Amino acid sequence: MQFMINKKPVLLRIILAFWIVLLLIQICCNMPQIQHPFGTQATRLAEELLAVDQKILQQSTAQHYSMIIQKLSGEQPVIINNEEMYLRSRYSYAMFLDYPDARVMPYLTEQVLQWVKPDQVEIDPYTYTDAERSYTWQNLIVTIPGQTTPDEKILLTAHFDSIVVQGGDALKYAPGADDNATGTAVLLEAVRLFADESFEKTIEIIFFSGEEEGLNGSRAYLEDHSYDNIQAVINVDMIGFDSNNDHCMEIHAGTNPDSQIIGLVIQQVIIAYDIDLQSELLSNTATDRSDHASFWARNVPAITVIENFFDTATSDVCALPDPNPDYHQNEDTLANINITYAHDISQAILLTITQLAIPIE
Predict the structure, then answer these.
(1) Is residue 29 part of a domain?
(2) Which residues span the domain enclosing 264?
(3) 3-state class (DSSP) for residue 2
(4) Which helix (H) or strand (E) is 309 found in, with range?
(5) How many domains does the chain have?
């Protein structure tokens, strides 16, 4: 961040009750009409969710998720072009000046090409200019094309770059296990699990660079890609620190009603699948310190999911902030991550993406 049990009947009842209550509120209070994020097939959707969701619940394990974080943060070796090496830094300057311990883009590209076809992968360059010179940095975009309404897009995003602001040299070592290997790992799991699935809407899984220098990757994406048909953006940024083990997380939705609906869907998924999480849905106190803010600037519905980092609570759910003290430090390693908590958030996000994109059996 910049500065199995069959749940089908339960899920159906919760979804229908939720939307009935919302419609009654709209009628009574003359609120603006909010588009149903599931389209017109809510009943059919609820009946068809189970297969792909069971895949998420069964195949995305905490152990596997932890191993991805260890590789991204330099604790375990990776294989790139048949050569073993370590990813000790994900600092954007190091990655795109080809430092030997920062070959993150080749690693991510090789990983996603295990699961999807080359024409589904876009390495998206953009120009970043600092006070001294210009550089070419890159985002990575993986597309799961929609089968029914492919122009309608659901985005799952996270920044994969890291930084160390004091007490070290980010060019050589910037592990960023929490910020933001935890979010990057969610995206890799999404590509692996969704690659062989069919959805009505298109899913774009976007790995942003340059977030730590000012949301550069997400801004560049919006400058050269159409955003008119983006229906929802879920951005994942720092979901691993939970020192008091209260399993509390924040959903930063802002004041756009469509963004708030995305947050409400995540909360309903947590209830429906009995995931051990508490959540605070933030509107007026929501932060703009992550890549979702680039989408807010274009009036695109977007949220960021994050650990209980900010002192912005509006209820007693996550009243006391629990920020990672090693944020932007050399000590941001797996040792400080609550893997069970982070994995639970990962699964809630993946299950929400399937809700929004609508699986086809």
Answers:
(1) no
(2) 8-24+38-360
(3) coil
(4) none
(5) 1
Token representation of residue 113: 């090409």
Q: pLDDT by residue (tens digit) across 138-164?
A: 999 999 999 999 999 999 999 999 999
**Ranges of H-type helices in 30-151:** 42-59, 62-72, 92-96, 104-112
Partners of 123 in the β-ladder = 140
- Beta partners for 202? 153
Q: Residues with Cβ < 8 Å from 209, sequence gap 6 or more?
A: 92, 95, 96, 105, 137, 138, 139, 159, 160, 161, 216, 217
Separation between Cα atoms, residue 176 and residue 178, nearest integer Å: 6
Query: Do the Cβ atoms of 237 and 179 come closer than 8 Å?
Result: yes
Token pair listed for 300: 């695109």
Please report, as a single letter, which amino acid is at residue 239: I
Which two structure tokens, joined as six digits, stand for 167? 């007490």
Whether 3 maps to a domain, the answer reads: no
Residue with the bigger pLDDT between 49 and 154: it is 154
d(CA 57, CA 344) in angstroms, rounded, equals 10
Long-range contacts of range 32-36, CB-CB < 8 Å, 24 or more positions apart? 32/257, 34/257, 34/258, 34/261, 35/258
User: The domain spanning residue 55 has which CATH number?
Assistant: 3.40.630.10
